[in-house]
Amino acid sequence: MCSAVASALFIAPTANHRIEFRKRDKEHLVLVSNWLALAGTAFLALAMTGVVLLVTDVMFGAATTVVATIAIALLFLVLWYAVPLQRLRSRGQTPG
């Protein structure tokens, strides 16, 4: 489900752009596309974390499953969200 939602969120800006092309609404289109892409990365991270949970649960024991799942979730959180947000904060900017 998370993969399907991520795909819809990632593809929506392209569809929106095609429909709104040359309608002089670029600022709104860029703002909405940015939020859709951010939501898409969140759902993609959830989907990939879920896959790690599923695969490690089938292949390994509970301890390995928990460690691997938490590790991959933290990796996504840090690289995709914490690092960019920290950079914005250090420059005195806000997201969006």
Written account of the structure:
- With 96 residues, the protein is mostly helical.
- It has one domain (2-90).
- It has helices at residues 2-20, 26-59, 62-90.
- It starts with a helix and ends in a 6-residue tail after the last helix.
- The mean pLDDT is 94.
Please tell me what the overall shape is: flat
Q: Mind summarizing the main beta sheet?
A: none
Determine Rg (CA atoms, Å). 17 Å
Low-confidence spans? none
N/C terminus separation: 26 Å
Total count of strands: 0
Estimated share of beta-strand residues: under 5%
**Structural class, please?**
mainly alpha
Query: Mean of residue pLDDT?
Result: 94
Helices and strands, in N-to-C order? HHH
Compact summary:
Helices cover 85% and strands 0% of the residues. By secondary structure, it is mainly alpha-helical.
Topology readout:
Elements (H helix, E strand, L loop, with lengths): L1 H19 L5 H34 L2 H29 L6
Helix pairs in contact: 1-2, 2-3
